[in-house]
Amino acid sequence: MADSIQAFLDEWSAAERAGDTEPLDAMLTDDFIAVGPLGFVLPKQAWMARHRPGELAYGSFGLAEVQARVHGETAVVTARNNTSGSYQGHPIPEAARATLVLVRDAGTWRLAAAHMSFLAGTRGAPPVPGAGGRPESQG
After folding, report:
1. How, if at all, do strands 28-35 and 108-118 pair?
2. Residue 137 backbone dihedrals phi, psi, to 5 degrees
3. Which sign, positive or negative, has the C-alpha torsion 14, 18, 19, 21?
4. Calpha distance 112→27 (Å, rounded)
């Protein structure tokens, strides 16, 4: 397992892209929790279950614009998550802003929490409020 933050993020991204649940299980803390871009909450088992056959299929999954801040044995990472693929046959958004909380466990980084937010204006995200449409008050 990775001892540097970037190595961990690279391994995690590869495991997510491949839907490889064995390394993912080891990379996530037992009490891992994720918050999706619509506010839903996924504990570890639900996060892992997304990778069941026929559920989530990534064509690509990567992180860009990575910034990490280390505070003792904890790191807070913000990044742009670039993806392509589908969930239950429906296209997934091409980009999200991710906040990841990593904890160092016996010298190895593990993912304790993830929060994903849509990037307004990217394919698959809700429209930018007030952009190009009639205000709701003019109904």
Report:
1. parallel
2. -70, -15
3. negative
4. 9
What is the full DSSP assignment across the chain?
--SSHHHHHHHHHHHHHHT-HHHHHHHEEEEEEEE-TTS-EEEHHHHHHTTSTTTEEEEEEEEEEEEEEEETTEEEEEEEEEEEEEETTEEPPSEEEEEEEEEEETTEEEEEEEEEEE-TTSTTSPPPTTSSS--GGG-
What confidence score (pLDDT) does residue 139 get?
A: 40
Structure tokens belonging to residue 54 = 């026929």
CB 95 within 8 A of CB 81: yes
Q: Which residue has the tokens 């790191």?
A: 75
Instruction: Return the structure tokens found at 23.
Output: 């390394």
Each of the 139 residues of the chain gets a pLDDT tens digit; together they read 567 999 999 999 999 999 999 999 999 999 999 999 889 999 999 999 999 988 999 999 999 999 999 999 999 999 999 999 999 988 888 999 999 999 999 999 999 999 999 888 778 777 777 665 444 443 4
